[in-house]
Amino acid sequence: MRIKAEAISKRFGDFTALDDVSLEVPQGGLTALLGPSGSGKSTLLRIIAGLEEPDEGTVRIAGQDVTHARPQDRGIGFVFQHYAAFAHMSVFENVAFGLRIRKRKPAQTRARVEELLALVGLTQWAGQRPHQLSGGQRQRMALARALAVEPQVLLLDEPFGALDSGVRAELRRWLRRLHDEQGVTTVLVTHDQEEAMEVADTIAVMNRGTIEQVGAPRVVYDKPASPFVMGFLGPVSTIDGRLVRPHDVSLSLTDGPGLIEAMVKRVVHLGFEVRIELELTGGEPARAQLTRAQSEELELAPGDIVFVQPPARSVVSGDPAEAAAAAAGEDADAQPLNA
Amino acid sequence: MVVSRRTTLSLRLLALLYLTLLLLAPLVIVFWRTFEYGFATAWAFMTTPAAVSAFWLSVLIAAIAVPLNTIFGVGAALVLARSSAPRVGKGVLDALVDLPFIVSPVIAGLALLLVYGQGGWFGSVFLNNGIRIIYAVPGMVIATVFVSLPFVVREVTPVLREVGDEQEQAAATLGASSWQTFWRVTLPTIRWGVAYGVVLTTARALGEIGAVLVVSANVAGSTLTLPLLLYQRDEQIGSRVTTSVYALATELAVLSVAVLLLMTVFGSRREEAR
What we know:
A: alpha+beta, CATH 2.40.50.100, 6-stranded mixed β-sheet, about 30% helix, about 30% strand, elongated, B: mainly alpha, MetI-like fold, 13 helices, globular
């Protein structure tokens, strides 16, 4: 294990940011800490970095106990949501900072910085100041700066949180490619489940200062350990007292054994998919997500009566309110505070 | 708000008149009276032994007070904006820093008398060791340090708060020690705020009269600064003295205008840096 955090607790006054949390990140892995704001994901990352000290628990990096070590002695690279660019230095000097602190030979520093600037595509910007760069470029510069000192682990705190969605998607793919080439053990904090699914090979879903589940993106999506995880990772509907994914629900126009009658309230076209909002016999709302072809075949309109077949596999049983709260919290805040 | 052209013009005229009467006219008269008997006469008054000594004493006091208050000011600003010290402690420091703004300079001078003067708390300690503080240059330096203390703190603290500590955290994760972070990241970030504070401190140190007057022996040639000499001459009578006063006033005004120019330059750089 490259990073091993054991039984970490952290309180800020009355607020419990982390409650007995343990996390392991394998060598070369890319783990995402995913959760709503206030779930403790950033606090956990900052404790791994040494920017915060835990009240209880230990942090090991590469087998060494670094719980009380200063950030500068941990061999980490850290990328902040708002770039934390050194405003008074050129892009070149920003990237060179860690090497200058380590008193590398000037020629060596120059070669390393040039190599990194080429890697992040900022070679022609070397002489500019950070404020002359776009947000995406600044964050690439911050990544190059963190990578320059060859950290044992790379820690990213909502690195794309302040960027437009287009740039965000591009940088995500770029980060994954970079990770595949460089192989640095990486932990990424995000509140965006799509980002976590796309980039990470392991997702740790956090809620209220604890980790609810750790697993591969597919596992946490298909086999969520709790209603919260299910609600946070994707859309959820309640049918017959069970939590299901709307795209697992099938609809038919004819009744049959085990089917539940429902009335179509609204048909929403989302491009490739069509969302059918339903009202079940008991009056509870439900949702189904169909492909366009399926929807066209059924020719549904508000007021129609359909028969709902819930998915065969039950996902989780539990409190639907938990899942609903998770789904609501998921996009409630694009810019969480020190979450 | 829509204002007619006439109103705009008369408002501008009023403002101009106000500034002319209060600032420009007195300055012009000072300059005119200075050179009334020609440049050579004015120059002669500016270079009398008393005037030269006063000029250099003013410069010396500023040269001691300004660096002291710069170091203290940056340190205090760091404590106020960055340290995890208890809130109460920071509140007390915050209030103390403003004390020189609130207390009249004359009272500050009198307080120094009570502490360091003959029969004062520490007065005898220094006097017995042959160190004269009151009615001597050390007292004048202390008085100047006191009255010009808040400027750097008040300029730097808001800048530190505004830029936040993320850059400093980033420097730490890149391996920089606190000392390296201060020199390479914090100081360059606040440099224009510091420069502006230094200029304000200098202006105050050069111009101070009240606090310094109380603790100075007021002997020309040894314990008179430029403003003090000016003040003393102004109380004497005679046409030669009058011209001498105007010459000294011009000298002080030229120094102040130089400082003002620096201030404008640093002020605009400081705005840009934000």
